[in-house]
Design a protein that fits this description.
This protein has about 450 residues and is an alpha+beta fold. It has three domains: about 110 residues, Trigger factor ribosome-binding domain (Alpha-Beta Plaits), CATH 3.30.70; about 100 residues, Chitinase A, domain 3; about 150 residues, Trigger factor, C-terminal domain (Trigger factor, domain 2, Orthogonal Bundle), CATH 1.10.3120. About 45% of the residues lie in helices and about 20% in strands. The protein is built from 14 helices and eleven strands. The strands form three sheets. Strands 6, 7, 8, 9 and 10 form a five-stranded antiparallel beta sheet that branches. A four-stranded antiparallel beta sheet has the order 1-2-4-3. A two-stranded parallel ribbon has the order 5-11. Strand 7 and strand 8 form a beta hairpin. Helix 4 packs across helix 7. The chain starts with a strand and ends with a helix.
Length: about 450
């Protein structure tokens, strides 16, 4: 058997395999014998028909079986003897065969991990957004804490900040009720925007038992800017109105927190500030990592094997099927997530290439040191050190950290301070879904 390997792209290799007649004869003899055993030819008992008659009667089937058996054998041998490491089963692209005496030639193509040429991963320029905690943000957090201990009193008329219990009936054309779209016992904090700011503002001034029709504009999605915004209408009935009385910020309030680490309001404010600073720094690092990878991918382009994309997409769809009770439109999912899937695969492969090039590694000792530093009981630490799954998971986590530490230490990082830290920090999270009302209604059914 002889073979040649040709690089057809950065992710594909084409094999041409030639099998001579001497190598085919044993395979053909074995196949012919197997056919003789089960051949049914008039005038002969099963397994007793002459070979020449069996061969003549089943020639095409015998040749097909010889080809299949030979390809299975020499496909594996060609891969074993080459330095090619396929990431998925190969595809037979051509077969040349007319008789065992003339041998067999076939071609197959396999996909491999791409040849990634690292062009630039040191010295990249990235901005790091720094979120600053303001006194106003601490005040808001402190007020939220007060609201957890607030008492509620009956109120006569809706004002901003009041808690209102509603019945919502969605209306259709001509403000006629839509069957099946009535939602009861929906609780809204007016002015918070947690339900829908546009609807909340229309509740101000209503009294218990009053009805009114409220409307909100549904923004046009980015992919359909040519369409006109739509309007949703609801008949609202106010069932209950409550106002909150916040507890004073005094020693009694501190005691009710049941937190031994603070004894004064100032200490509480400082603790809140530190928690927010830690949270903002975590968000800042997440955004920085995202920008780093975006820059690395831009500086180091390469193709992704289709088999990797298909494999990733298959598991994504299967996971969505398991987590959803509704039927999944697989074609829609493929179209919706294809760019993200390709980007994720490219990010993974590029990261692995840089880790390999820079010989980044995490030792067992480093993993154990990390476990020892965790604020957990000693028995939990020892248990974790003896669990391979835990060790491997932490090793991947620490290696990921080493990767980003390395890139950052070799990058030009510019800190930028957003004009409105509170708004920007909020923007760092996922954007508010336009269907807030629908989600809120469903959660209150």
């Amino acid at each position: 058997m002889k073979f040649e390997v040709k690089k057809t792209s950065s992710t594909k290799r084409q094999f041409t395999v030639k099998v001579d007649s001497e190598e085919l004869h044993p395979i053909a003899a074995k196949v012919l014998k197997a056919f003789q055993k089960r051949a049914t030819i008039p005038g002969f008992r099963p397994g007793r028909a002459p070979m020449n008659l069996v061969k003549k009667r089943y020639q095409d089937d015998i040749n097909s079986q010889v080809i299949d058996d030979a390809i299975k054998k020499y496909y594996v041998e060609a891969l074993d003897q080459s330095d090619v490491e396929p990431i998925a089963p190969g595809v037979i692209t051509d077969i040349k065969f007319d008789d065992v005496a003339n041998g067999l030639e076939f071609e197959f193509e396999v996909e491999v991990e791409p040849d990634i040429e690292l062009k630039k991963y040191k010295g990249i320029k990235v901005e790091k957004t720094v979120f600053q905690v303001t006194d106003e943000m601490v005040d808001d957090a402190l007020r939220n804490l007060q609201e957890r201990f607030a008492t509620e009193k009956e109120a006569e008329i809706v004002e901003e900040g009041y808690l209102v219990t509603l019945t919502l009936q969605q209306l259709g054309e001509g403000d006629l009720p839509i069957v099946g779209r009535k939602y009861e016992d929906i609780r809204v904090k007016v002015g918070s925007g947690e339900f829908d700011k546009e609807i909340e503002d229309q509740l101000i001034g209503l009294k218990v038992g009053e009805e009114t029709v409220v409307r909100r504009v549904i923004p046009t999605p980015p992919e359909a800017q040519q369409e006109q915004p739509t309007m949703e209408s609801y008949r609202v009935t106010v069932e209950d109105i409550k106002m909150q009385e916040l507890p004073p910020l005094d020693e009694e309030f501190i005691k009710n927190l049941d937190d031994d680490s603070v004894s004064t309001i100032e200490e509480l404010r400082e603790k809140i500030r530190k928690h927010m600073e830690a949270d903002f720094e975590k968000r800042s690092q997440e955004i920085l990592r995202s920008r780093i990878m975006e820059e690395l991918l831009k500086e180091n382009p390469f193709d992704v094997p289709q088999s990797m994309v298909d494999h990733y997409m298959h598991h994504l769809i299967e996971d969505l099927k398991k987590s959803s009770q509704e039927r999944i439109d697989e074609e829609f999912i493929r179209q919706q997530y294809m760019a993200d899937v390709i980007n994720d695969i490219r990010a993974y492969l590029l990261k692995q290439k840089i880790i390999e090039t820079e010989k980044l590694d995490v030792t067992d000792e480093e993993v154990k040191e990390y476990i020892d530093a965790l604020d957990i009981p000693e028995e939990e630490k020892e248990k974790g050190k003896n669990q391979p799954d835990v060790i491997n998971s932490l090793r991947r986590q620490l290696l990921d950290q080493k990767f980003y530490d390395f890139i950052i230490s070799n990058a030009e990082i510019t800190e930028v301070f957003p004009p409105s830290p509170q708004a920007s920090a909020s923007d760092a999270e996922s954007e508010q879904d336009d269907e807030t009302v629908e989600e809120e209604k469903e959660s209150n059914q």
